[in-house]
Automatic annotation (TrEMBL):
<comment type="similarity">
    <text>Belongs to the LysR transcriptional regulatory family.</text>
</comment>
<dbReference type="InterPro" id="IPR036390">
    <property type="entry name" value="WH_DNA-bd_sf"/>
</dbReference>
<dbReference type="InterPro" id="IPR000847">
    <property type="entry name" value="LysR_HTH_N"/>
</dbReference>
<dbReference type="Pfam" id="PF03466">
    <property type="entry name" value="LysR_substrate"/>
</dbReference>
<dbReference type="GO" id="GO:0003677">
    <property type="term" value="F:DNA binding"/>
</dbReference>
<dbReference type="InterPro" id="IPR005119">
    <property type="entry name" value="LysR_subst-bd"/>
</dbReference>
<protein>
    <recommendedName>
        <fullName>HTH lysR-type domain-containing protein</fullName>
    </recommendedName>
</protein>
<keyword id="KW-0805">Transcription regulation</keyword>
<dbReference type="InterPro" id="IPR050176">
    <property type="entry name" value="LTTR"/>
</dbReference>
<keyword id="KW-0238">DNA-binding</keyword>
<keyword id="KW-0804">Transcription</keyword>
<dbReference type="Pfam" id="PF00126">
    <property type="entry name" value="HTH_1"/>
</dbReference>
<dbReference type="GO" id="GO:0003700">
    <property type="term" value="F:DNA-binding transcription factor activity"/>
</dbReference>
<dbReference type="InterPro" id="IPR036388">
    <property type="entry name" value="WH-like_DNA-bd_sf"/>
</dbReference>
<feature type="domain" description="HTH lysR-type">
    <location>
        <begin position="4"/>
        <end position="61"/>
    </location>
</feature>
Amino acid sequence: MQGFDLEHLRTLVMAADAGSLSAAVPLRCLSQSALSEQLRKLEERAGQSLLIRSKSGVRPTAAGERLLAHARPLLALADAAWRDLHETPLEGEACLGVTDYFRPAELTRLLARLHQQLPRLRLRTRIGRSDELEAAHRDGELDLAIVMSLKAKQKAAAAGVRVSLLHQEALVWVTSLGKELIEKGRPLPLALLPEGCSLHRLACSRLEAEGIPYTVSHIASGVTGLQAALHAGLGIACLNTSAVVGQGLHLLEKGVMPELPTAQFLMLQSRQETDDSPRSRRLQVLGDTIASSMLG
């Protein structure tokens, strides 16, 4: 019979999150030998290595990362089914930060799914720039944060923070202006977010590298304001594809503008949330439900 044992998958997740087998032992309430045996059986079932073991600990292989992406939502659904049948709904409050670049048209559906699966959880949300959300998470103001990063510049996990990849998509140049704007060779008018925004810096640096003249014609405080500026014909913006909403906008052809990297959307969670306290369970389930929603 094909398939994976859920408890073996849970051990893989715990080992990957803890960063070492010895640290995962008390979390799984297993002996070192029993935990290692579960991982051995899981790798045997997968037909390939899932963890790279070294003196400094363990980290997932490429195959391990792929299996982890499936394991987290599977475990979240299994835990949700157990809570439902035992009538033990998740309760309490959690603070979630979301970058306003993150799938704006789908944020409503994400929140609806969280409410559907976790109806007793009171959620506080903060929408803002990724750098602001990272700082708020670091300072303990947010329990989880969904931020944007550029694939060309991988984000290193801060001490005590677990970074999970939720989604990635292309960055594009978008405008409502006519193509003659570019063909005439005049400085390109850019509509951007403030200077602290990674896409602001990216757009300017790519144009400067190609020797393309530009001027910053509009600064918006958030993506909603930036979209309004684009529809008003105030300039050209660099956006992730899911943030291009509404009729009247068009993508500029490849070769006309500089190439852009891929945008990654990452979830920041505290590595310290690994005990069996109600708060830890609450945040773990919330994170797994968000990951499951994005895969769905």
